[in-house]
Fold Molybdopterin oxidoreductase.
Amino acid sequence: MSETDTHFVPHSSHWGSFRVRAVDEDTIEVRPHELDTEPSPIIQNAVDSVRHRARIDRPYVRRGWLEGTPREGDARRGVDEYVPLEWTEAERLLSAEVRRVYDEHGPTGVFGGSYGWSSAGRFHHAQSQVHRFLNSVGGYVRSVTTYSLGAGMVIVPRVAGDKYNVIYGGSTWTDLITSGELMLCFGGISTKNAAVNPGGPTSHIARQSVRDLGAAGVDLVNVSPIRSDLDDAPSQWVPVRPGTDVALMLGLAFELIRVGRVDREFLASHTTGYEKFEPYVLGTTDGVAKTAEWAAEICDIPAETIVALAGEIAQKKTFICVAPSLQRAEHGEQPIWMGITLAAMLGGIGLPGEGFGIGLGSMGYFGNQPNLYKSPSLPQGVNACDDFIPVARIADMLLNPGTEYDFNGERKTYPDIKLVYWAGGNPFHHHQDLFRLHDAFQRPDTVVVHDAFWTSTAKHADFVFPATMTLERVDIASAANEPNMIAMKPALAPFAEAKDDYDIFAALAGHLGVEDVFTEGRTSAEWVEHLYGLWRERLHAAGQDCPSFDEFWEHGSAEVPLEREPLSWLHEFRADPVANPLDTPSGRLEIFSDTIASFGYDDCAGHSTWMEPEEWLGGELADSYPLALISNQPAGRLHSQLDMGSASQVTKSKGRELLTIHPDDAARRILVDGDTVRVSSPRESSFLATVRVSDVVRDGVVQVATGAWFDPDFAERTCRHGNPNAVTMDRGTSKLGQGCIGQLCLVEVERIDGPVPDSHPHVPPRGASREAARK
Ligand code: PGD
């Protein structure tokens, strides 16, 4: 570093490490960290956000709650006014309410699922803090799986086991670059998404890795409705209809059988159940042969292209890659299961450069060399309650207490939730059918939210506590499969009366008589040092050198030991399936699963299957809603975080999110760049967006990024800002996975002529101070 850089301290975010300097007490300057060879522009969002007027300046309580929780008219959650409180009063009121709920309803009345990415630091990880607090008090109903990989996290363990889980330890970029020949990428490899890695990436290598694949002569095939889903290296574009990849894969499977290119030896030694799957492909079980012509009708790719593609994958060493976005859709388990099945038919699983992978390009850690040791993390304590929901079923749970539902072979009952506690997530951006979620959030007695910003979720809370931003506190950044750990040093003092989540919980724990259990007598700075010490002990026990905490803090970063060898998924199992069995019932890859078949679900059979989604371009609903909306991850921010920042704002137009539409579809609706449109859905809800005409999407498809802060007009059931979850479907992927299906739904788009309502998503609600922040 040069002399002038000395005031830049190291810091980190899920979208990269950076250096930050306080220009004055309210202004910062950031620059990329020198360890990062290809930093993400998203780091700039912090500059515009840190003192933005959407910061929460002090504790608040919703007026309706204070006056006896009326849930009608303007006293509803989401539209109500807020009353400022002193910290001590807020703590006293909330702790009394927490005590009441535990006394009257026990832990099954408390939902602490609190899903969300929060910020990168490992100690201040907000969800861990909520869980530790609620475990200290008496337990809570938790959530399992994620919005990212809900269906995948259920189907993969069932058919390939957890031991060598492809989600957590798939093939590496190095393996594919050195040994690959052909990569068939369903959903492409969209490296804008790989800019983020939960916990703080220091090495943005995905983009360069794709360039290296191209330079190494690996043929890249982008099977996606969006051309730019694979554009870091030359690739062949197969513009499949959204939601029909399984049909395309079945067409390829049929061709492999037809030309005699199925590796029956591998299937016999490493898989089970193929003999029940092949008759389905050939049509002997259901009378429908899954030929290339059959597939072409469904996925709108010419049969000749499918036959040619099958010829290529039959000849070359092939890696089949499925993006997580494919499983965030109706029947989302199927593309993953079918991808594994197709790779098994080719016989290359476990060999260098071949096989199957999930998620390359979808998050930083996929494809990187794995860590040898687990990152530091805050122990969450023991949960006295064993009830849980699949994470994306939150609205179902709140709306239907006592109702039974299926999940992964279990028959479960939704609990009756009285208290919802959320910190570090924004369900009013991330959940589907947000107007339904708004109704669901009227049901509990009390909703508590900690956030640094007045998100729509905060505006649905009864108690709103102002959290510090990570730039205002001490922490450690450390992400899976990353070569460095970063000392996160504060750049500014806490904004207004904001406090660390930890200190908020410590004070509440004090009121509830469990402070010692929650804090173990440590301050947050002592916890950070303690967690680093535990990590250092792990390394020492394995004979590895590691700097002391003081050395780490002084230097600002520490190297993290990684696997050195390029790895391909299931190489040990491949070498000896008897000595290294998978932890599936058969010890093998399950092309047919007796366990799944035994559940008797009508939406998930014993082998991977093409099932028509309810909302797709080949279905009846497409007559009224003829466009498939893809709501994928944004390029200018992580999810909804720091949406007011410049890197996010430049991706919008006229204050709204951009909707990309194909020129033919635009012409049919007489739309041009910059038009404002209403995007409406079968849910009788809509959002507004600004048009961008481009052939980067195939015809019949429109695309809007997720994460624009929800700016609802409840009377019109529309989001003025362009959050696509205003119109997405709130159902599970299937009874098996119950994952989120936010990625795809059907819509119609029409130009709005005449006056258009302005959107002001980044403002505090009525009653909250609009003066406190200076920007
Ligand atoms: P974020 O915007 O990251 O979204 O959903 P998620 O809720 O994780 O929310 C994090 C929140 O935490 C922000 O409001 C931020 O201000 C707050 N925060 C940050 N740091 C702290 C802190 O230290 N303390 C506290 N108290 N708060 C903090 C993401 C989810 O969206 C995900 S992971 C996926 S993959 C889904 N993807 C899709 C999709 O593809 N399509 C649709 N339609 N919908 C999706 N939703 C899902």
Remarks:
- The mean pLDDT is 96.
- The chain has four domains: 3-39, 60-147+383-559, 160-368+591-599, 620-751.
- DSSP finds 25 helices and 32 strands in the chain.
